[in-house]
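Anyone up for a design puzzle?
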């Protein structure tokens, strides 16, 4: 689960965690102040003390996801329209969660509605003289 937010202040982060996790969830973070006081089982690693793993506590999953976002920004999309950020992020969440799946499994998941989007012909931002193309339009969560 990922969401585009305007700020990363304590109130925004706590609201996001509360709305998207169960009361029993364990949340692993770094030592940033915005995470202090989470109403969940909260464990952290202290990157400032050169700590990246403490037993089974780490932030490798989210760091891997953000590396994917940065690669998409620099290599695939080059420039993201702010109005579509949530769509890019939803696509990258799906790709991140589907990594390791075979192509056939991904196709079956797509046809079965597992993608968070739908196929549409020629989105409104396409030039009218372009030949018809099909695009994946991702629904916002």
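Challenge accepted. My sequence:
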């Amino acid at each position: 689960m990922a969401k585009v937010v305007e700020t990363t202040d304590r109130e925004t982060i706590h609201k996001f965690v509360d709305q998207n996790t169960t009361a029993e969830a364990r949340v692993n973070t770094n030592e940033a102040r915005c995470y202090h006081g989470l109403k969940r089982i909260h464990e952290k690693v202290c990157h400032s003390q050169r700590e990246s793993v403490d037993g089974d506590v780490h932030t490798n999953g989210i760091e891997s996801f953000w590396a994917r976002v940065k690669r998409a920004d620099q290599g695939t999309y080059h420039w993201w329209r702010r109005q579509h950020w949530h769509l890019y992020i939803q696509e990258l969440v799906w790709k991140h969660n589907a990594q390791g799946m075979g192509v056939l499994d991904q196709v079956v998941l797509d046809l079965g509605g597992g993608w968070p989007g739908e196929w549409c012909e020629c989105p409104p931002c396409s030039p009218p003289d372009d030949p018809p193309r099909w695009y994946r339009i991702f629904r916002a969560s």
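A detail worth pointing out: The chain has a mean pLDDT of 78.
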